[in-house]
Amino acid sequence: MRTRLLLIALAITVYQPLVNAQEKTYTADWKSLDSRPVADWFSDAKFGIFIHWGPYSVPSWSPKGTYEEWYQTWFQSESVFGNGKFTGQEIPDFHKSTYGADFNYIDFAKLWKAELYNPVKWAEIFKKSGAKYVVMTSKHHDGFALWPNEHATKSRGHLWNSVVTGPKRDLVGDFVTAMKDAGLKAGLYYSLYEWYHPWYQAGLDKFVTDYYHPQFKDLVDNYEPDLIYADGEWEKDDSYWRSKELLAWLFNDSKVKDDVVINDRWVKGQRHKHGGFYTTEYLREEVNFDKPWEEIRGMGLSFGYNRNEDIEDYNSPQMLILMLSDIVSQGGNLCINVGPAADGKIPVIMQERLLQIGKWLATNGDAIYGTKKWKRSYQWSPGDRNFQLLEEGQSYVEGDYILKQTVWQQPGKAVKELFFTKKDNDVYAISPKWPGKELVIKDVKLKTDTKITLLATGENLAYQKQGKDVIVTLPEFNPNNFQPEDYYAFVFKISQVN
């Protein structure tokens, strides 16, 4: 009896902190909201998919170097920015010559049919890519809702959601169901502001009280997303958005209060300061965040599908895999964008890139999933480590930055010889190219039972210590021992590192 009572007391002691954690009430201030931890699954996932899809997918055109999903504002404001020099007339000229002077942006919704949309097929591709979560735009800055939300239509006076016009289908609902059924985390992107909503343009509070907040709650309660990616916060502070109030509801009273993951885009000027995980976007610099973080970028430069992009505008599989390795070595996630065509098909080149990443991860994923930052992210060669990532006239860092930092060594510049990740007592060294006859790993302390293994072949490799360094003897390179995707980066597992 005494033993039984002790076991009961122990169970209560263990259970009580869990109860208290679940019952914690968050108040509408950043100190309280920021105390809520980001769920472990997000930090462990490392690789996700972003999807931009909406009425803008019908024209699917913008000047190279720009965001196609911004078509509406490029058209109506007659201004464009991105990588390149623009007059501002590029979209208006294209629009008038293609659709006519009397064709308005809202007319694209009627043409958007999504007739080949098959989210189950999407999920199969995403699973094969090795992604662990997928985030789809539920509403972009044009305000078109991809679910049957009445606020999107009633506040405008015209049909503006995917059930009452265009696809005549609950695109979000079918997406969330398919992703969760496939074992993927389902996330939803949501834009706080809208370019041309009359209430927002007039600065009316009812845009927040009668539109943003109730629409957001409708989305969360109906679809219970695992992740919410807010955006469009940059024009207003929280005296307008009242996002802290909304997040307090999300964490205390919503159906996903215990599990949902959020980002940091809720209030003007607060990215990398408040919210959940931190976000970067086409801005590749060395980071040192105290929270989980995520880099988003397209396979080309646009997020929405841009028919104007050519093969040379797309990142190669080598670029994407090296980006992933680089970002994960810094403790982050890579969320790579897919822009479906208006009919719902994922363009073949995007499918190919996803499958190439997935094949590399099938062999080398142990160095990516569930890893943490090691004591250093890289091993540098001698040379200047300062890189000019943005050229004159550019707004976004293009994908070849990673090649310049690894396999395209520039005169006088250093390169990242190895990326490092860590899991428990093991360290993974990811080499952007085959090192040759030997691999030198600098400043690493090994235990007496350490093994160094080439993941692609499973071979245990001979090594010797040389001061603070380790010299690993590599086998003669035999292409028959590798899959084509293995060539993009070679992974060496170092067990039992001190």
UniProtKB/TrEMBL annotation:
Its EC number is 3.2.1.51. Residues 1-21 form the signal peptide. Residues 20-366 form the Glycoside hydrolase family 29 N-terminal domain. Pfam families: Alpha_L_fucos, Fucosidase_C. SUPFAM superfamilies: (Trans)glycosidases (SSF51445). Keywords: Glycosidase, Hydrolase, Signal. Residues 415-494 form the Alpha-L-fucosidase C-terminal domain. It is an enzyme of class 3 (hydrolase). InterPro entries: FUC_metazoa-typ, Fucosidase_C, GH, Glyco_hydro_29, Glyco_hydro_29_N, Glyco_hydro_b. Alpha-L-fucosidase is responsible for hydrolyzing the alpha-1,6-linked fucose joined to the reducing-end N-acetylglucosamine of the carbohydrate moieties of glycoproteins. Belongs to the glycosyl hydrolase 29 family. This is alpha-L-fucosidase. It comes from Flagellimonas spongiicola.
